Each structure stands twice: as C-alpha cells, then as structure tokens.
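$ ./design --mode recover --in tokens.txt
reading tokens...
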C-alpha cells in the first residue's frame, strides 16, 4: 500500500514559479514509477509529467515541456514538480500518482496508476 500526500500548491501570478512535492509512504517507492496529472474545472484529468523509478527517464506533456521539471529523491520518498513560467491555463488541481513497475519505465496513462494523492490546488492569475 502506498499513500501519497501533495503539497506546495498556491496562488501565483503569471510568469511565476511553484514547486510541488509528493511524499510517499511505504517501502516500495524506489520501484514506483511516478506521475503528475492535473484537472481543471469542467475538464478531464490530463497527464503532465512522469518519471521512472530510477529517475533516468522522464516525459512531459507538450503543454508544459520546457517549463516544468519532474524529479525524485528516493532517499526521501518524494517526487517533485518544478513549475516555471506559469500561465493562467496551468490553473488546476494537481495530483501525483504511483505504480510499481518491473523495470525503470515511464507511465503516462492515468488508468495504469494504482495510487493517487488527494491533490493540491494551483491557481495562476493573469
């Protein structure tokens, strides 16, 4: 069983930065592929970024590529999402997710994740 707790959301002006954290419980974190997703009001949940359990592979949605960076610290059981050059369209609830994988791969499909956090609100004002 894995429990995920996100933090770091808030209100920021366009062009600003935020860093989200996702702390994971359990002893399997180093074998978990991790992902960040977001859901804006009235829209479906969408993929943002993912990282393999080794941290050696990452993938990003086109909408955030070059602005967001996903990283992880397996010693701290934590995954991060550094968000720079934020835009109003980045406003959403951000969720982290985890799934145990047999090898160091990235997972971009939400339905393949087994564990989800409760989400943290990010609001970008224009």
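writing sequence...
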């Amino acid at each position: 069983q894995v429990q995920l707790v996100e933090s770091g959301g808030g209100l920021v002006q366009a062009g600003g930065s935020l860093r989200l954290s996702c702390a994971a419980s359990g002893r399997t974190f180093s074998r978990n592929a991790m992902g960040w997703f977001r859901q804006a009001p009235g829209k479906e949940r969408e993929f943002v970024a993912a990282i393999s359990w080794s941290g050696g592979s990452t993938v990003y949605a086109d909408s955030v590529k070059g602005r967001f960076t996903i990283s992880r610290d397996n010693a701290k059981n934590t995954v991060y999402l550094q968000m720079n050059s934020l835009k109003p369209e980045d406003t959403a609830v951000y969720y982290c997710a985890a799934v145990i994988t047999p090898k160091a791969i990235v997972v971009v499909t939400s339905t393949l994740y087994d564990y989800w956090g409760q989400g943290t609100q990010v609001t970008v004002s224009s």
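exit 0
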